[in-house]
Design a protein that fits this description.
This protein has 298 residues and is α+β, with helices and mostly antiparallel strands. It is built from ten helices and eleven strands.
Amino acid sequence: MGKWSDGKKEMLKADISLVSDTSMIAADIPSITTGLRGLAYWQVEVTGPNRDLHSGLFGGTVANPINVLCSMIDKMVDEKGKITIPGFYDDVVEISRQERQLLAKAPFDEEAYKQAIDVEKLSGEAGYSPMERTGIRPSFDVCGIWGGYTGEGAKTVLPSKAWAKISTRLVPNQDHEKVAGMFADYFQQIAPKSVKVVVTPLHGGQGYVCPIDLPAYQAAEKAYTDVFGKRPVPVRSGGSIPIISTFEEILGIKSVLMGFGLESDAIHSPNENYPLEQFFNGIKTIPLFYKYFAEMAI
């Protein structure tokens, strides 16, 4: 990250950062996001032979990069859902039982959740609830994978290369640059000598926590209560907004996350949408936040 001059910091000086790139539990269950996960993201390239080969003439004696890549990815998470990168959990702060109990108060209907995304069973790290897995624990995902012949019909090819895009969601206190290096080292380490591996970091960001005793949080809480008629539930989001940790690191300010999106918005999907009612509720709520926060500063 480049250096920021004192002049630029002074120009952006603020008491608090207000961000609305978050969501609520439901239209009738207001919530405020108190935590965001960090992110580390890579592209990996696995190379076997120097050109595509005939799978009949070479298959069984020359390593197939796609097979190898799939096998390597499979080794990254164990049977209990834990990421296997050595040292990966060293900086993960274990959440107290008290905070886990507070997080558990957020309503969650597992059957409705599974039905909404059409899956029969959920999976993840053993010993944690679905909301904890996406809020207070790291995760590992392959975001894309390709290689070989993918056109119409059949072509008996043993490909020269295979690629994947891989990400980890990190929790506060995990450094994305440190994790990026650990992943690259481990992925190279587990690669068989039958292939060559290149790991390219693409981007990353730190996690963030907003304390619920922060005056800005309390002002937001009061604003939501006025508009929705009930106290908002504090929740940890599984998503990442890297600029939030940058605000804290460079400008020395915290952020309050007042979003109004819903699960039904289908974010990052073809039919992404946003209800007008939530838009209008946001218009009502945010000015009240400014009112209450300004009163606290007097």
